[in-house]
From TrEMBL:
It comes from Spirosoma sordidisoli. This is Fasciclin domain-containing protein. The keyword Magnesium does not apply. Pfam families: Fasciclin (PF02469). Residues 58-195 form the FAS1 domain.
Length: 201
């Protein structure tokens, strides 16, 4: 994988974690706002720190604003890998972003090992396995479709109605729990399981 490719998908991930923080703040500000008559009004919201499906990011979002309650482990992994320093790349890319719960499913001790200096190379490859070149919305993902990641690995799409799952190289299945989060250089889908390439331990 070239340095240019790293730049692009690192920015895609950065835009995602920044976008969830921005939308969360906007949502919280809207809740409980009083109208001109003094009556409290409310708006529909998602859980704190999350971004609802179909949301969009701004053009000036940065990784420093990232406080997504559901993706703090991803944010930490990005920092440890050094990829948050990358700030260019046109894309477009599609990112399957694991939630905190997804990382908690990993075997005991494996996440800690990845976050150590000795595990940096494996961490970078793991994060990159969640990124596909091209912009794919939920509607564009098709049942049985094979997606090639930027590491050269393969992800397989399964689609039954509105339910979409992604099968990784080891046969594990991740469900998309937030779809079509649009960034300035691609599309993000939040997933409930960390995707693992074939042969990874």
């Amino acid at each position: 994988m070239t340095k240019k490719t790293y730049l692009g998908w690192a920015l895609a991930l950065s835009l995602f974690v920044g976008s969830t923080a921005l939308v969360s703040a906007q949502t919280q500000n809207a809740v409980g706002r009083a109208d001109s008559s003094g009556t409290m009004t409310t708006t529909s919201t998602t859980s704190e720190g999350t971004m609802k499906a179909g949301g969009a990011t701004g053009r000036d979002l940065t990784i420093s604003a990232a406080k997504s309650a559901d993706h703090t482990v991803l944010f930490r992994a990005l920092r440890v890998s050094g990829l948050t320093e990358q700030a260019s790349g046109k894309g477009p890319y599609t990112v399957f972003a694991p939630t905190n719960e997804a990382f908690s499913k990993l075997p005991e001790g494996s996440l800690d090992a990845l976050l150590k200096p000795a595990g940096k190379q494996k961490l970078v490859k793991l994060l990159a396995y969640h990124v596909v070149k091209g912009k794919f919305s939920a509607e564009q993902l098709q049942d049985g479709q094979k997606l090639k990641t930027v590491t050269g690995g393969t992800l397989t799409v399964s689609k039954q109605g509105d339910a979409i799952t992604i099968t990784d190289g080891q046969g594990s299945v991740a469900t998309i729990n937030q779809a079509d989060i649009e960034a300035t250089n691609g599309m993000i889908h939040s997933v409930d399981t960390v995707l693992m390439p074939a042969g990874a331990k």
